[in-house]
Structures are given as C-alpha cells and as structure tokens.
Design a protein that fits this description.
The protein is built from seven helices and seven strands. With 208 residues, it is an alpha/beta fold. It has a single domain, classed as Spore Coat Polysaccharide Biosynthesis Protein SpsA, Chain A (Alpha-Beta Complex), CATH 3.90.550. A hairpin with a 5-residue loop joins strand 5 and strand 6. The relative contact order is 0.16.
Amino acid sequence: MILFAKAPIPGSVKTRLAPAHGPARAAELHRAFVADTIGKLCEFRHLADIELHTDILTDAWKEAGVTRQVQTPGDLALKLVHALTGALRAGRPQVMILGSDSPTLPRAHIQRLLGSTAQVALGPCEDGGYYAIACRRTDPRMFAGVEWSTPNVLEQTERAARACGLTVERGDVWYDVDEPEDLLRLAAEPELPYHTRRALRAKGESGG
C-alpha cells in the first residue's frame, strides 16, 4: 500500500483552504491528515507493506517508521503508473495507492478495495475523483485523456482503463477535504483521528 503525499510546505498544499485559513494553517492540516492516514494504513501491515511516496525529499512524518520514496518526476499519470507498475513487477499481486485528503476514510472502504478481484478497483470521491486506486494489472495508457482536478477524473479513468482491456470495479464512496466547507464537515464528525483532532482544536474548529 502506497500513500501519495506532498511535502507540507505552506503555499503548495491544501491551497483551496489557504484563503480562509492561511497557508501555514493549511499545511499543518495537511501534515495531520497524512499522519493519520499513515496510522490507518499501518493497521493493514499484516496484509501489505506500507510506503510513503512524497513529491520531494522531506523530513516530515519520519516518526512513522515506514518505507519512503520520492515520486518519479512527471505528471500525476506518470507518477501513478510508475509506482503501480513498479510494485507489481516487484512481485506483489496487488498494489494500492491512496491520497491523503480523506483522514476519516473508513477502514472498511480500504478493505473492500483490497478484496476486489478486478484488475483496477477505484475508491470514488463525492467530487468525481477517487481517494484510492488498487491494481492487479496496469497499462501505460491507463490514464490517457484523464483531466486531473476536474469532476470527470473517476469516469475518465474508468474509461481509459477499460480501453486498455482492464477490468474495473468501484468501491464505496467517501469525501475529500479540499474546500472550507469540507473542513467544516470534517470537524462535525463525531470521531476524529488523533492528529486531525489536535490540528482542528488548535484553531477551535472542532467542538469534539
């Protein structure tokens, strides 16, 4: 299992939260989301290796004690294909890449994708993207034509993967925390993971 995450540099992460909360605050929230997601993935260590792939070298999250790599240069499609294919070629029967924008993603959603027998299983987000992709087979063209950061990412990925002859399945829907309203929704959840809860309380955004 691979977690994709950007280094928590103010001004380069959670930029849609920055106008309302400030770049530094947005970066701290991102740091917390990633820390909690790593912790959640580590609960699956009996099933899979856990790796953190960052966009650049960073000391952030070094306390997590997981294998770390820097993502290959290029656009997101290239980064995904490189990481997915590399893990499969290393002998793993399945590899999953998750994003770091869903700190309260239910464990059952992850489990369902791990249990999928499809060659490509996608965890759909409410905004039209996906929080995870799990693959048993890849193709260099499997993200051809995908317009990233649009509401069409999920459907376009499914279409491109099927065009490569890959079988595709959808998992359970969840939400990303990208916009200020998403942060309010997150803060209203009755149970929050440790780092996210602390980060929200630091600004009084959580009443829990």
